[in-house]
Amino acid sequence: MKTNNCEIRKALLSLDDALPYITLNPNSITPVLLVCDHASNRFPKSLGTMGLDYIDRVSHITFDIGSRATTESLAIQLNATAILCQYSRLIVDCNRNLSDNSAFLDTSDGINIPGNQNLNDNEKEIRESEIYWPYHNAIDCQISRLKKHDANPLIISIHSFTPIFNGNNREWEIGVLWDKDPATAKIFISKLKDAGFLVGDNKPYSGKDPEDFTLDYHAEKIGLPHVGIEIRQDLINHDDGVERISNTIQEVISSLVLANKSSNIHIESPLR
To answer: How many domains does the chain have?
Structure first.
């Protein structure tokens, strides 16, 4: 179950393992919070290779390729706080409700995940308590901190998608995912199209689906403006691509922040 603070109980993770999340610019008061659920393909040392070959451990089934570099670049350019999960989605998917079977995948894109076969409740609860909830608690902590500074943050979730999935080509270059905040999404869609990108409106995934847990849980429930950004992985699997994409997304975010400052009001979603 969810803990009430940011403390970490050790059982799965050893002292030699990385922390479950990393926070960049933790004291920034820029009214933007970047989150990256699938930033890493790291496994806890106690779980070894999860029974996967090297090629699978560095593939899109373990993490969102390029998402970490893009999030880090945006955090630097915006001087904004960013929280990145430091463990693979295959350990526990931090962008899923824990009641969703896809929180603990036993197969992904046709690949069996031996380390996730027949997980018992105790094994799941340990992963939840040491990785999942510390990450989400950290997001809550940063939202609370920013609100105390009267900086109601725009929450932006950064993901990437593989150009081919289940044998299907995906033509979109960037997807804008949304549900309860169409106003923010429309600005992103319009500006990204103006920048020359082929943009998917709730594609290749839909922000209206229940799988979009992080934004649902942290932003929608308290009416903060938010948007999910999906970037095709071949565009950000190299430094030049990361720079190009992050520069463009940074300009969109900056325009929203500047508009907010000039009007002397907070960016609001329809729920506020």
So the answer is: 1
